[in-house]
Design brief:
The chain is mainly β. The chain has helices at residues 9-17, 130-138; strands spanning 69-75, 80-90, 99-102, 108-110, 114-115, 121-128, 150-153, 159-160, 175-176, 179-181, 189-195, 200-205. The protein contains 2 helices and 12 strands. Strands 1, 2, 5, 6, 8 and 10 form a 6-stranded mixed β-sheet that branches. It has a 4-stranded antiparallel β-sheet with strand order 4-3-7-9, covered by helices on one side. It has a two-stranded antiparallel sheet with strand order 11-12. It starts with 8 loop residues before the first helix and ends with a strand. The mean pLDDT is 92.
């Protein structure tokens, strides 16, 4: 008489993406069609309209599991950092300044900021700021190839849609990059200056 259904990750993430749905018993109801299930004699169940209407849950357990970073990609040609999570997060809670890029050795860089859509999602594409890109490329042996590109962050870096804080990734055991795209954009000379008094030619480029 009891049937247990396990939600797929995609369905669960979509439920968490929608605001004001399945956050408590008051905004959670079940509606079903007659094709949902049959009894042992082959009789289809009465649909919601024929029986109970919109059915409230007898028990409701909120999400208390902290979200995790499952992988990240970095593209230094397009200046993009893409982060993937174990579940839908509240992207408005994402604090890029709590993320650190490292080479799993001595080189470490803390991000200053980034641009991204602030919708609920299980993955986020972050447009990196020029100040961060220039600082990263200036540090030797950091994010120049796959084996020196790692990420770590604090527990306040992001939260899920039930306000659970992130499972932090430590500096001692950082997350390795999944897909790495190196910088293939040729630098451009923006301006130049000549000082004949001190014999200096100064060239200013658009990147480090």
């Amino acid at each position: 008489r009891v049937v247990t259904l396990y939600l797929s990750l995609s369905d669960l993430n979509e439920l968490k993406r929608l605001e004001h749905l399945a956050t408590s018993p008051s905004d959670t109801s079940l509606y079903f069609a007659a094709t949902l299930i049959k009894d042992m004699a082959g009789n289809a169940v009465l649909n919601s309209t024929q029986s109970v209407g919109f059915l409230k849950p007898a028990n409701f357990t909120i999400d208390s599991v902290s979200p995790k970073l499952t992988r990240f990609d970095i593209d230094l040609t397009e200046n993009l950092l893409t982060v993937y999570f174990s579940e839908t997060i509240d992207v408005k809670s994402l604090d890029i300044t709590q993320f650190y890029l490292s080479n799993n050795a001595s080189a470490i860089y803390q991000f200053n900021g980034g641009n991204f859509l602030k919708d609920r999602a299980a993955s986020v594409v972050i447009g990196l700021e020029a100040v961060d890109i220039n600082a990263i490329t200036k540090i030797r042996n950091l994010a120049s190839q796959t084996n020196n590109t790692f990420l770590y962050f604090t527990s306040t870096a992001f939260r899920d849609t039930f306000n659970n804080t992130a499972v932090p990734v430590s500096m001692e055991n950082p997350q390795a990059v999944k897909n790495f795209t190196s910088d293939s954009v040729k630098p451009t000379l923006k301006k130049w200056e000549l000082d004949l008094n001190i014999s200096i030619l100064r060239l200013v480029f658009d990147e480090t």
